[in-house]
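Sequence, structure tokens passed on for absentees:
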Amino acid sequence: MDIRLKQCFLAVDDHDKAIAFYRDVLGLEVRGDVGFEGMRWVTVGSPLQPDVEIVLEPPAADPDTSPADKEVMAQLLAKGVLRGVNFTTSDCDELYARVRESGADVIQEPTDQPYGVRDCAFRDPAGNMLRFMEPSKQG
């Protein structure tokens, strides 16, 4: 038996802003854009990983979520406290410069970490943390 990651989910409050960021800034492909019961799901992924996708969904996407829970999710998203996604890259500094120029909220400039990566971090337009890691060039 084998198990592989297929999709992960991120909450976004504006799909058009999210598409502009993930497609135009990060260079991911938009693979799907589906509406259902007044909600929208957009699927993006790296051209280098055709079998792995990120689904950009509304906060509390379950249609049975109570209005109070939807409000709490929207507040948490606005605060930027929901979890994000970690990416790998071959050039952390180049990616950092491109994403910073887009106006994205910088969390961490490129830093050599003691656990063997150089990484940086940003928030996407919805406030999700995205971390970009480059394997260390040191022995």
Remarks:
- The two ends are 35 Å apart (CA to CA).
- The mean pLDDT is 92.
- The first strand starts at residue 7 and ends at 11.
- The first helix runs from residue 15 to 25.
